[in-house]
Amino acid sequence: MIPVLPGSLPFTIYDHNMLLEVLTPERKIYAGEVYGVQLPGIDGSFEILDKHAPLIAALGNGKMKVLKDKAHSEFFTISGGFVEVLRNKATVLVEGAVAVEK
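The structure assignment produced for this chain is given below.
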């Protein structure tokens, strides 16, 4: 961990991938370290990668692609919600999600 200097932002530099949690009102759908995630925003798809800047965005209905690493992915169909990115952790809160076999 790099020490925080007086007057600087309090954050931690991580040596590993971003943490992703996908939650519905009923249960946790996914939790783990990932390379990134592609999401259906209300104005179009977007991607969040390791060490992304803080973000809150609304999500529409569509496919979510979890990039476990540069060669392996998992797919989910999601219905509406939000994503928050803070301190190298992405939390996806959706009304519903179903794993899609590829």
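Interim note for the steering committee: Residues 89 and 95 are 20 Å apart (CA to CA). The beta strands are 18-23, 28-34, 36-41, 44-49, 55-59, 62-67, 73-86, 89-100.
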